[in-house]
Design goal:
This protein is α+β, with helices and mostly antiparallel strands. It is built from 1 helix and 5 strands, in the order αβββββ. The protein has a 3-stranded antiparallel β-sheet, with no helix packed on it. Strands 1-4 form a two-stranded antiparallel ribbon.
């Protein structure tokens, strides 16, 4: 009976320790510029998609062409950038 109690205590402590671990997140930030003129591009749509969990995060550049995407989990992502009139 003592073995089961000790095992239960160990499992409870392991579960508590796992909850106390810091969550890792990631972020991508920067500027989108016109390659021909070096002017900042506003209202560019950016989508960051996690290839494993299929979760996605979106942002739109501001007047200065800057953006910041913050994802809830670290992982491998695909970044898609779209603006009408650009290939």
């Amino acid at each position: 009976m003592r073995r089961f109690w000790a095992l239960g205590l160990f499992l409870a402590m392991a579960a508590w320790a796992a909850d106390e671990l810091p969550r890792t997140s990631c972020s991508v930030s920067g500027s989108v510029l016109n390659a021909g003129t070096s002017e900042p591009l506003k209202k560019v749509q950016l989508t960051l998609s996690n290839t494993a969990s299929e979760s996605s995060y979106a942002a739109i550049t501001d007047e200065a062409g800057t953006f910041c995407l913050v994802a809830a989990e670290a992982g491998t992502y695909e970044l898609v950038i779209q603006k009408r009139g650009f290939v």
